[in-house]
Amino acid sequence: MKKKIKLIIPLFLLTIIILPAILILSGNRAFSKGIVYIDRGAVYFLDKNNSPILPIMQNKISQNQFNKLSSGDEIILLHDGINESYPGQTGAYFIIKTGSENTVPEEAINEILSLKPDEKVYSPTGRNETDKEPVYATCGNTLTTIIKDGKEYSFMYDNSVYLFNLLGNLRYEDDYITETPEFTVRLEDKVDYYVNLTEGWVCTTEPSELFGRDKTGVCTLTDAQIQYIGFIVNCETD
């Protein structure tokens, strides 16, 4: 038992103290304390002014840590600068959870819920939508299936709505992909969307009557889209 304790303590010190220190020394990094709020798979960090900020995961450590968070969790976030987009975005490198079950300020929740469709991370986020009026799902009964490593994972509710609203409404340009997709997403339009988050693209070879889309092809994903698609895939396939 004593030998195990001796091994655990150095690992704890490496994770909590040494690693963040290295990250701070290697660039323009800072610690901020705040509360987490999750909306449709998007993890918002509320700073001391209760302003919603989108942390963009910069490594597998931060991604795994964020996957375990819930709304109301209090965290200390190691991050870089905050850009001027709305909502603001920052690179996330490391998280220390310091509390849970905190009350998320109502004004912060209302601000997040009032974001326009093109400001929400489940929308195309700055990219052109389809030629016709976009189709957005709001019903939790929307069914989505992820096909990964030969297995199918079907689910509904918020994560399903997110992928429906995002992947279905992107503008796909004529192009050819030689890389292999990492997984496939099948929406309620019965169309397969092939995704590679490492390379940052999604493509489809089928038109969609539901979304009024005649074109097929490829769309490059933004950093925010890559982050939250990855978040959903990890949640639904674990």
Poorly predicted spans: 1-9, 116-131
Radius of gyration in whole Å, from Cα? 19 Å
How much of the polypeptide forms β-strand, as a percent range?
A: 25-35%
Q: State the end-to-end distance.
A: 31 Å
Task: Write up this protein.
The protein is an alpha+beta fold and 238 residues long. 27% of the residues lie in helices and 29% in strands. It contains five helices and eleven strands. It has a six-stranded antiparallel sheet, covered by helices on one side. It has a five-stranded mixed beta barrel with strand order 1-2-3-5-4, surrounded by four helices.
Q: Notable features of this structure?
A:
disordered N terminus, 6-stranded antiparallel β-sheet, 238 residues
List the helices and strands and how they pair.
Blueprint: H1 2-25, E1 30-39, E2 42-46, E3 52-57, H2 60-67, E4 74-82, E5 88-99, H3 106-113, E6 144-148, E7 151-155, H4 158-167, E8 183-186, E9 192-196, E10 201-204, E11 217-220, H5 223-237
Parallel strand pairs: 3-5
Antiparallel strand pairs: 1-2, 1-4, 2-3, 4-5, 6-7, 6-8, 8-9, 9-10, 10-11
State the gist of this model:
With 238 residues, this protein is an alpha+beta fold. It has helices at residues 2-25, 60-67, 106-113, 158-167, 223-237; strands spanning 30-39, 42-46, 52-57, 74-82, 88-99, 144-148, 151-155, 183-186, 192-196, 201-204, 217-220.
